[in-house]
Design brief:
The protein is an alpha+beta fold. It is built from nine helices and four strands. The radius of gyration is 17 Å and the shape is globular. This is Putative GST-like protein YibF.
């Protein structure tokens, strides 16, 4: 398998964490790319019409995207039933994944407003509206923190963790821990898992 990735992408990190948890990192060739919300990278677009990472290229040449699909594929390939559990636990896991992904979507839009849009056409109110969504997601994570596992995570738990890690990486000024102590306490333990430490985001 080959993975088109960017080391700063939190959605790529989700896939990397899943690869570590399912013991498949050695089976994946990591292909660096230049994913950008405006400037398309032809290397990604050749496999994914959205030209977004992560994009997984299977041995037969087929491509899988986005992180939700790739993570479930990795779990099924490895025979893992923890990441995507059965029964009622599945809906909890998938809803938590949606919560984490939603936080990330809003945070990325807020970041792109400053980094990808020219200064003369930036819309501060748009960025603030995205950060309101981030804060609402943080409040929900805080309310669920007591139920979040510290080991043996589902896809929802690790997505939330990747989202909080992205805030540390790109939005330190939000100081999210101060207003969300239970979420902070959970994350401080969860982030020490080997799969999380092995996938810490970094500039290329």
């Amino acid at each position: 398998m080959k993975l088109l990735y960017a080391p700063t992408s939190p959605f790529v990190r989700k896939v990397m964490v899943c690869a570590h948890l399912t013991g498949q990192t050695a089976q994946i060739e990591w292909l660096a790319s230049a994913a950008h919300p405006v400037n398309r990278d032809a290397r990604i677009a050749a496999h994914n019409p959205l030209a977004k990472v992560p994009t997984l290229i299977l041995p037969d040449g087929r491509a899988l995207y986005d992180s939700r699909v790739i993570c479930e594929y990795l779990a099924e390939t490895a025979g893992d039933t923890q990441l995507f559990p059965a029964g009622s636990a599945r809906w909890v896991a998938l809803t938590r994944q949606a919560l984490g992904d939603g936080l990330l979507d809003a945070a990325l839009l807020a970041r792109y407003e400053h980094t990808a849009r020219p200064a003369e056409i930036q819309w501060p109110q748009w960025r603030e509206a995205q950060l309101v969504k981030v804060q609402a997601c943080l409040a929900e994570i805080e309310s669920q923190a007591g139920d979040l596992p510290r080991t043996h995570p589902s896809i929802g738990d690790l997505t939330i963790a990747c989202a909080l890690g992205y805030l540390d990486f790109r939005f330190p000024e939000l100081d999210w821990r101060t207003a969300h102590p239970r979420a902070a306490a959970w994350f401080s333990v969860f982030n020490d898992l080997p799969a999380m430490q092995a996938t810490l985001p970094h500039e290329a």
